[in-house]
Amino acid sequence: MSISVLLADDQPLLRRGFRMILEAEDDLEVVGEAADGAEAVDLACRCAPDVVLMDIRMPGTDGIEATRRIIGADDAVRVLVLTTFDLDEYAFGALRAGASGFLLKDVRPAELVAAIRTVASGDAVISPRVTRRLLEEYAQVLPLSDVRQADRYPQLATLTEREREVLLAVAQGLSNAEIAVTQFVSEATVKSHVGRILSKLGLRDRVQVVVVAYEAGLVRPGAGSGH
């Protein structure tokens, strides 16, 4: 089954380069090109792509706002953000807006193709570890309100004790294999716990789990990371 991709970048040469890479693959199809965020939102509504490859800094509506609008309109669409710096505030903003990951603009063709296939299958392409570093770096822009986490994310109350432990481990940047070792269970068991957590909290991937854990105050920036 082919994966439909929408390209959003204000540089025509970059779009052409990405199109050439993607169209060389049998299972990838470019269904549209947008030169700015507003056009990306419009085309995403009309083409309903599986994946949007989104430049983060564009004139007018930037990639973060475009990501927020696209996912708000159709949360089945996955957004992969393109950035020049892997740990900058824009990448962080994109994750909070619902992106499934980000790539550096000079990504190797094979990595780009693999990343698109990964997010199309429902997974995230950045490790929880990178997400955690981002959150620690930009924690000051998180809205740490006085609202209790139970009020803010009532679904957290539906998690079992074990699911809560797994959620905290994911939020600390551990992989399924690492969680399996610390919890003395199989990796398959961890995977099914993560699946149930995503389903109960209405989240798309483990990157969103990390963001929610921080926003709900379950994990504090710097906790357990040595500073």
How does the SSE layout of this entry go?
Elements lengths: L2 E6 L3 H12 L4 E7 L2 H11 L3 E5 L7 H11 L4 E6 L5 H9 L3 E4 L4 H12 L7 H10 L11 H4 L8 H11 L4 H8 L3 H15 L4 H10 L12
Parallel strand pairs: 1-2, 1-3, 3-4, 4-5
Descriptive overview:
The chain has a 5-stranded parallel sheet, sandwiched between helices. Strand 3, helix 3 and strand 4 form a beta-alpha-beta unit. With 227 residues, the protein is an alpha/beta fold. The protein has 2 domains: 123 residues, Rossmann fold; 77 residues, Response regulator (Rossmann fold). The N and C termini lie far apart (46 Å). Helix content is 50%, strand content 12%. Helix 3 packs parallel to helix 4, helix 6 packs parallel to helix 11 and helix 8 packs across helix 10. The longest helix is centred in the last third of the chain and has 15 residues. The relative contact order is 0.11.
Low-confidence stretches: 223-227
CATH 4th-level superfamily of the largest domain: Response regulator
Helical amount: 40-55%
Q: Provide the β-strand percentage band.
A: 5-15%
Return the CATH architecture of the largest domain: 3-Layer(aba) Sandwich
- Listing every helix as H and every strand as E from the N terminus to the C terminus, the arrangement reads EHEHEHEHEHHHHHHH
The strands making up the biggest β-sheet line up spatially as 2-1-3-4-5
What is the CATH first-level class name of the largest domain?
Answer: Alpha Beta
What's the total helix number?
Answer: 11
In the CATH scheme, what's the topology name of the largest domain? Rossmann fold
Q: Structural class of the helix and strand makeup?
A: alpha/beta
End-to-end separation: 46 Å
SS elements, strand count? 5
Largest sheet: 5 strands, parallel
Count of domain modules = 2
Query: What Rg, in angstroms, do the CA atoms define?
Result: 18 Å
Mean pLDDT value: 84
Shape: globular
